[in-house]
Write a structure and sequence with these properties.
Blueprint lengths: L31 H22 L11 H10 L10 H13 L10 E2 L8 H13 L6 H4 L1 H13 L10 E5 L2 H21 L3 H4 L8 E6 L5 H8 L7 E4 L9 H13 L3 E8 L11 H11 L2 E6 L23 E5 L11 E5 L18 H5 L18 H11 L1 H24 L3 E3 L8 E6 L9 H15 L3 E7 L2 E7 L7 H19 L7
Parallel strand pairs: 1-11, 3-4, 3-5, 5-6, 6-7
Antiparallel strand pairs: 2-8, 7-8, 9-10, 10-12, 11-12
Helix pairs in contact: 1-3, 4-13, 7-9, 14-16, 15-16
């Protein structure tokens, strides 16, 4: 007779003779109890996710922050004796699962936060089950070479040659940090023969300067502070009417730095600004960088997906001049967070972050041809994120990837046209470069209204009702609304529905007191 074993997890179930010990049902180990437990858990989680995603009418349940905070505080976070997965999922279904933003909903259009592809979600199951770390060969084996080959596929897409290399990262923040870290250390070694990794910052470090546009990502300044240079080491360049870096101002700032005995060492171009999707003039900036001996870093976290676009890829012209490139896959490559890459034109640049630990990546391994990826990363433990991208590229195909990306660009233009035709809207980027649209509601009879407060209230109301998720931003001191149209399932009808809601709430608030200057 077979005796079933009921564990606190309620994971099912094998006869007691096949259990190695009491902990077997808690792990997926390829044997009876582990297989049954994993299959049971996967089924339960899938059912609960389907339930949470069933209502597609709204991207958010529509709770105020304080309501969610109280619900989470009421949750019991720890239990001494454990409980079944079914009981746990039941308990978190309302306060947690159903209170999340449904990023795959077609009216969730706030941030550079993409709906994840199914192949990538399948890959996540493999990644989490093996739980391998990509730092050393003996932890990742085949995964090491798959990441290496995927980087090799990626490099020529950005115009890099055989001397180039790269690594997967957690995203744009880490990649931008690595670009400026290598730039700083390369300059110090080239200029003074000073090895920052071993000797720390040189005396002249307080004269080092980084240049970027006023619309560059905040991580440029954040990186400067973390690199011991301080945020004031970042020289901000003015932008033109298209939110692109002004080349005249760049030249003037470089001349002024030279006259003041300061030392510019890095120039950062942005390929896809957060608000407007603007792309700096990379051809001209690359030429300036070469003339002044600057490390040229391109932050293409957003715009890097243009390598797969059928109709917009030419906007990347000039990126091949970069010394380093940031690209994110958890934006327009539709990968689950986190997934990004950092690329360098010359693989020797990674020498500035190499460190050999006897237990992990001894130098003799490298001499024997063993590949330890930790030698080109600021991370040690990291996930096998390359698998997500590879499975997506294989199953979706680069043609469909390009079709999806181009659809969002087309939708952005249609949205801009719709806004232009509707009275009461002011749009700032009539011809979107990528797929963000910046605008605000200005009622025709709104004289004397506090338009900043009006647009804040519209955005907040839509969020807290759950009817639509959109962002707000500040442009030249004024509050604007923003659509970030990453979802290829979003249609113009979705956009029209949201604009109608904006008009309705705008008219309602405009008629009330409290919004006058």
């Amino acid at each position: 007779m077979i005796t079933k074993v009921m564990k606190p997890t309620s994971f099912q179930f094998e006869d007691t003779d096949n259990l190695t010990n009491d902990f077997d049902p808690f792990f997926f180990h390829g044997e009876g109890a582990g297989v049954a437990a994993y299959s049971h858990a996967s089924q339960l989680v899938t059912e609960k996710l389907i339930e949470a995603f069933t209502d597609q009418s709204k991207p958010y349940i529509g709770k105020a922050p304080e309501d969610i905070r109280r619900e989470i505080q009421r949750l019991q976070l720890v239990k001494e004796n454990g409980e079944s997965l079914y009981e746990l999922l039941e308990d978190i279904q309302e306060p947690l699962l159903k209170s999340n933003i449904n990023i795959s909903n077609t009216k969730s259009i706030a941030h550079l936060h993409c709906p994840p592809l199914l192949p990538a979600l399948a890959a996540e199951m493999i990644i989490s089950a093996f739980n391998q770390s990509m730092d050393s060969w003996d932890q990742s084996t085949a995964a090491t070479y798959l990441e290496h080959e995927l980087i090799r596929w990626l490099l020529p897409k950005f115009g890099f040659g055989g001397q180039a290399d790269g690594t997967f990262t957690s995203g744009g923040t880490q990649s931008n940090y690595m670009g400026l870290l290598l730039a700083r250390d390369h300059y110090c070694w080239k200029q003074w023969g000073h090895h920052v990794q071993k000797e720390g910052l040189p005396e002249q470090a307080n004269r080092l300067r980084i240049l970027c546009s006023e619309h560059a990502h905040f991580t440029v300044k954040k990186s400067a502070s973390q690199l011991g240079l301080g945020e004031n080491a970042v020289i901000v360049i003015k932008t033109d009417d298209l939110q692109q870096i002004c080349m005249n101002d760049l030249e003037e700032k470089l001349t002024a730095l030279e006259e003041n005995g300061l030392l510019p060492f890095a120039l950062v171009a942005t390929c896809g600004t957060t608000d407007f999707g603007s792309i700096d003039p990379m051809i001209e900036m690359g030429q300036v960088a070469e003339r002044y001996g600057l490390w040229f870093h391109v932050d293409a976290a957003y715009g890097g997906a243009l390598i797969l676009s059928h109709s917009h890829f030419q906007k990347l012209t000039g990126i091949e001049q970069a010394d380093s490139i940031t690209v994110d896959f958890h934006k327009l490559f539709y990968q689950p967070i986190s997934c990004g890459a950092f690329l360098v034109k010359d693989k020797r640049s990674f020498q500035y972050i190499q460190h050999h630990a006897d237990y992990l990546n001894p130098s003799e391994d490298e001499e024997n041809g063993i590949l330890h990826l930790v030698t080109k990363s600021t991370q040690t433990t990291r996930r096998f994120d390359a698998l997500k991208l590879m499975m997506s590229l294989r199953m979706i195909g680069t043609k469909t990837f390009g079709d999806m990306i181009d659809h969002t660009f087309k939708l952005a233009k249609q949205t801009a046209d719709e806004l232009y035709l509707r009275p009461g809207f002011r749009i700032l980027n009539r011809n979107p470069v990528l797929n963000t649209v910046v605008f605000r509601y200005e009622p025709l009879d709104g004289k004397g209204l506090d338009l900043d407060l009006l647009n804040k209230k519209i955005q907040q109301t839509l969020f807290e009702s759950g009817e639509a998720i959109m962002a707000k931003t500040t442009v030249e001191g004024e509050i604007f609304l923003k659509f970030t149209l990453l979802n290829p399932r979003t249609t113009l009808n979705d956009i029209k529905d949201i604009l109608t809601l904006i008009e309705q709430y705008g008219q309602m608030y405009s008629s009330k007191r409290g919004l006058n200057h």
